[in-house]
Structure of Ig-like V-type domain-containing protein FAM187A:
Amino acid sequence: MSLAHTTMFLWTWVSLQAFEIVEKENIFQSTPCPAFLMFDNAAYLADMSFELPCHCKPEEVLSVVWYYQKQLGSSHTKVLTDFDGRLLTEASHVRVGSDMLVRFSIRMFSLLVFRAQPEDSGLYFCGTRNGDYFYAYDVDIQSNDGMVATFKDEGQEPFADEHHGSLHVFTTFWEWTPCDRCGVRGEQWRIGLCYLKSPNLSPRYQKTVPDVVSCGSHAVPRKLRTMAQYHMPELQIQSCLVPCEKTQIQEGMPAIYSYLSKVGSKPWIPQVPIQFHQQSLGHGLIISCPGARPEHAVAWDKDHEQLYRRQYLIGVNRSMRVFIDHGNQLHIRFTQMSDRGIYYCWRQGVRIAGFRLGVKSEGHYPASLLDPEARSAVVLTLLAYLLIVVVFVIIQLCRCCCYCCRCCPNISL
């Protein structure tokens, strides 16, 4: 290719790139900001991450600042900004219970909040450093503490709708997740959040469906919100079976395994990356699936045993030593020797990781009330002591009654 053709090609490519950038910026020209600030209603489940796009802004504004208020007109306003040297937050670096000021990022004018909590519910404003607002959201983060699970294979039905006069409270379900396993029987589920319909909602809050918002929305008057507070989020689960897609082994690996098998015995070939962890006997452990979010289809296996949610979902039994929470994490309380093995993690129907768990019993560890096992032992000891005292007092009262009435034989302790 000649120099002239090369120059013409580069000039054309740069022009197309510039045209594409201009087209992206023109999106804000086609979406004028409302003259009167309205609030878009959005509902999520606790521990989920969500994104709030700034749908409109003046063309001359090159960067935005997000603001948060718990209540409309509150004097306490949090300023959320990624400027002045603040580093962008990654979802993998966020810990449960962290303040919202370290759980957000602003990317391409959109606000990202990681592992949202019910305390993050409120009003979010997109604006400038001077406090000019362009777009706003009414965000409702619903708690998963009282979440109810129903199993479709067992004929269980979701909660019935509630009617209180003109107030209609119901559950709105999301789409079914993909099957969490392939090649064997798996499970899929869908999340249902609390919504209500009433003609007595505030007109300042935009609704996708007329007179319908989430139960925790600021558009709902306090009296109606109290009537809907007992309608909990739901989780509906059903069985599924899908085939696995064929995956190719990396080139060069079969030759290495063939060589090792000739030198000695045939080696164990892990299909997924394996991480080793040594746990002390009697201590608790929480295992998370890499890259998984609460809305993902996540499954757990122990060696060749499938840990189905029908048996291991939190809340299925009153006392569960091994269970899966609503955030797809595997919990093991009071680790036992029988817990040793490899725990495999599935994400969106693909097995992606394994955790080889070893349990050791040697060693002495200082007791601490911060340890849940130590607290349980102290509580059980106090209850036993209290029971002994109560029995002793009852026996003494019986002896006193017998002595006063002189109608019982002598009782010697």
About this structure: Helices lie at 3-30, 222-227, 253-263, 309-312, 372-405. The chain has three domains: 29-142, 148-240, 272-360. The longest strand covers residues 186-197. The mean pLDDT is 80.
